[in-house]
Design goal:
mainly alpha, 0% strand, 85% helix, single chain
């Protein structure tokens, strides 16, 4: 039974943000909005702040033993991950490819490296979230 629950959670984690990212990408194509830098769907500082907030939430989760607080922190962390996915999806759909045509190879490489760093950070957050979820399930038994 645990395997089915875990598989279902994994599937939701991996597919739901993609749907949101696609919706965000189409809305970003219409309006870049304030706080956007050329070639990026969102200001680097904003993305870094979101990543730090996720890490802080996960740290709180690791530091608490209260089951209700852990549940709340898990929901908050999931919401933060989804928002980050939406923002990252907007980077690709929000004209990043078009802007890259106007950049030299070094600028393109830097932008892609930033994107890879963010993706690695998100991957790490997803892995920690899944581990915390599994720990919570083990604790409840």
């Amino acid at each position: 039974m645990k395997k089915y629950v875990f598989t279902g959670v994994m599937a939701a984690l991996l597919t739901l943000p993609l749907v949101h990212a696609q919706q965000e990408a189409s809305s970003n194509q219409q309006d870049a909005g304030p706080g956007m830098k050329q070639g990026m769907g969102m200001d680097q500082d904003d993305m870094q702040q979101r990543m730090q907030a996720m890490q802080g939430t996960m740290q709180q989760l690791h530091n608490t033993q209260d089951p209700k607080q852990r549940q709340q922190l898990m929901r908050e962390h999931m919401q933060q991950m989804q928002q980050m996915h939406q923002s990252m999806g907007g980077m690709m759909g929000g004209g990043m490819g078009q802007n890259m045509q106007n950049m030299d190879s070094k600028q393109c490489q830097e932008m892609m490296q930033q994107r890879m760093n963010m993706m690695q950070g998100m991957h790490q957050q997803m892995m920690e979230h899944m581990q915390a979820l599994q720990d919570m399930q083990n604790d409840s038994e």
